[in-house]
């Protein structure tokens, strides 16, 4: 898969140069010359990777990075910061802003392609898992527990024959809350090791063993197959680093190791690996975590509740008030009784289609259950919501529903709907739903096939 890469740099010559390098490797390049443009392109084009210059007039790279990571629509896109600053603290600032990696300018081609290759492999796994999740959790939003799991200290195995290097990297890692084990300690305690390894730190330069053999071993052995391998190597040992990356090493760090960089890279790799693990578990759990109703493709009750809470919070924080439309198919039980459940399912599907083509993109259409539907209308006044509900009602009544494709049998379907609007600070999702249902009841009592709203 050839990735689309967004290159953000304020200097035209830099953009051109990077574009040429990437296109030579068959990547597709998108360009942005400032932070504002970068945010727009990232959201609309959804590139696979973003290369982000730090020093830009106006919004600098750190700020762009924070905003991209703060927006659910772009938070999953890996960001590589390009910094002309050689101070370790400046590079690490990028990782703290949420960047996934960084490169120092002038960008070294080898390092650039190594990082992009690693991110590409990671993306491929994450994308596949997100797709398989069937639930359309497009934002990649994580629960609090899951976020906590991403930040927990890592179990790290250090493979290096030089005891001095081990000491030098052990202290800062343990101070940062990680558990460190050498190969000898691991062998001695293998029976006691219950927590799976997160990371192998593998020294490539000046070693007595064959580091590439070890790299391949970790990659192919069951218990360490999904571990992140960070190789540590001297800048002169490029060739062996390239081979290690080919064998599945996930990241590279230059020796002598700078502790801050080591800690930042360990944190990034741990987060990435655990994110993939979380997605994997979600796929396993499957439908339980699904947010989509399988019959109609609309959002289910679980997602509805999440979104109600979210938009209520935004309304309370001073956004325009939200509204909800509770809709219920009239005499639906009779459809099932007279024509069977298959016909009933077809009605539900067609009903869902007609709602979907009659709402705005920002509206959230849910099927909490049975013949009940709920449309969450963010930033929508009660009047506007009533007009929208009326448009849906007409679309349902306008044409009969086909319930059998063989015979072409059609029946008339109508819908009743109740509208409720956020009333202020102490309003709750439960109260809003109650008011919408009350309005729906009024519409049913008044003869069905109509829209009602009730004052709070
Ligand atoms: Mg610049």
TrEMBL record:
<dbReference type="InterPro" id="IPR000160">
    <property type="entry name" value="GGDEF_dom"/>
</dbReference>
<dbReference type="Pfam" id="PF00990">
    <property type="entry name" value="GGDEF"/>
</dbReference>
<dbReference type="InterPro" id="IPR029787">
    <property type="entry name" value="Nucleotide_cyclase"/>
</dbReference>
<dbReference type="InterPro" id="IPR050469">
    <property type="entry name" value="Diguanylate_Cyclase"/>
</dbReference>
<keyword id="KW-0597">Phosphoprotein</keyword>
<feature type="modified residue" description="4-aspartylphosphate">
    <location>
        <position position="53"/>
    </location>
</feature>
<dbReference type="Pfam" id="PF00072">
    <property type="entry name" value="Response_reg"/>
</dbReference>
<protein>
    <recommendedName>
        <fullName>diguanylate cyclase</fullName>
        <ecNumber>2.7.7.65</ecNumber>
    </recommendedName>
</protein>
<dbReference type="InterPro" id="IPR011006">
    <property type="entry name" value="CheY-like_superfamily"/>
</dbReference>
<dbReference type="InterPro" id="IPR001789">
    <property type="entry name" value="Sig_transdc_resp-reg_receiver"/>
</dbReference>
<feature type="domain" description="Response regulatory">
    <location>
        <begin position="4"/>
        <end position="120"/>
    </location>
</feature>
<feature type="domain" description="Response regulatory">
    <location>
        <begin position="155"/>
        <end position="270"/>
    </location>
</feature>
<feature type="domain" description="GGDEF">
    <location>
        <begin position="320"/>
        <end position="456"/>
    </location>
</feature>
<dbReference type="InterPro" id="IPR043128">
    <property type="entry name" value="Rev_trsase/Diguanyl_cyclase"/>
</dbReference>
């Amino acid at each position: 898969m050839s990735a689309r890469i967004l290159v953000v740099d304020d200097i035209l010559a830099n953009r051109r140069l990077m574009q040429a390098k990437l296109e030579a490797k068959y990547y597709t390049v998108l360009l942005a010359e400032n932070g504002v443009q970068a945010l727009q392109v990232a959201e609309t084009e959804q590139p696979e990777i973003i290369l982000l210059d730090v020093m830009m007039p106006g919004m600098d790279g750190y700020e762009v990075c924070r905003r991209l990571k703060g927006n659910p629509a772009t938070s999953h896109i890996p960001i590589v910061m390009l910094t002309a600053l050689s101070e370790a603290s400046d590079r690490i600032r990028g990782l703290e802003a949420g960047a996934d990696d960084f490169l120092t300018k002038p960008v070294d081609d080898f390092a650039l392609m190594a990082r992009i290759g690693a991110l590409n492999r990671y993306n491929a796994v994450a994308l596949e898992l997100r797709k398989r999740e069937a639930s359309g959790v497009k934002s990649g939003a994580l629960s609090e527990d899951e976020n906590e799991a991403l930040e927990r200290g890592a179990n790290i195995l250090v493979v290096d024959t030089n005891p001095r290097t081990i000491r030098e990297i052990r202290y800062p890692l343990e101070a940062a809350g990680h558990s460190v084990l050498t190969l000898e300690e691991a062998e001695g305690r293998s029976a006691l090791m219950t927590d799976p390894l997160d990371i192998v730190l593998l020294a490539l330069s000046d070693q007595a063993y064959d580091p590439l053999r070890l790299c391949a071993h970790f990659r192919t052995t069951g218990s360490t197959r999904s571990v992140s391998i960070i190789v540590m190597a001297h800048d002169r040992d490029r060739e062996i680093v390239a081979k290690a990356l080919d064998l599945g090493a996930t990241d590279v760090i230059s020796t002598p190791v700078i502790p801050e960089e080591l800690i930042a890279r360990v944190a990034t790799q741990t987060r990435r690996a655990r994110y993939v693990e979380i997605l994997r578990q979600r796929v396993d759990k499957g439908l339980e975590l699904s947010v989509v109703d399988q019959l109609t493709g609309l959002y289910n009750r679980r997602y509805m509740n999440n979104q109600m809470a979210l938009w209520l919070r935004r309304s309370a924080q001073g956004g325009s008030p939200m509204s909800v439309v509770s809709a219920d198919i009239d005499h639906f039980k009779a459809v099932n009784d007279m024509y069977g459940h298959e016909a009933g399912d077809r009605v539900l599907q067609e009903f869902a289609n007609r709602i979907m083509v009659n709402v705005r993109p920002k509206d959230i259409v849910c099927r909490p259950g049975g013949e009940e539907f709920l449309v969450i209308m963010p930033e929508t006044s009660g009047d506007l919501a009533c007009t929208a509900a009326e448009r849906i009602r007409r679309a349902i009544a306008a044409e009969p529903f086909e319930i059998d494709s063989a015979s072409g049998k059609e029946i008339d379907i109508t819908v009743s709907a109740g509208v409720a609007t956020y009333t202020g600070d102490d309003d709750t999702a439960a109260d809003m739903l109650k008011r919408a249902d009350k309005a729906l009841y009024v519409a049913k009592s008044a003869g069905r096939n109509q829209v009602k709203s009730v004052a709070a």
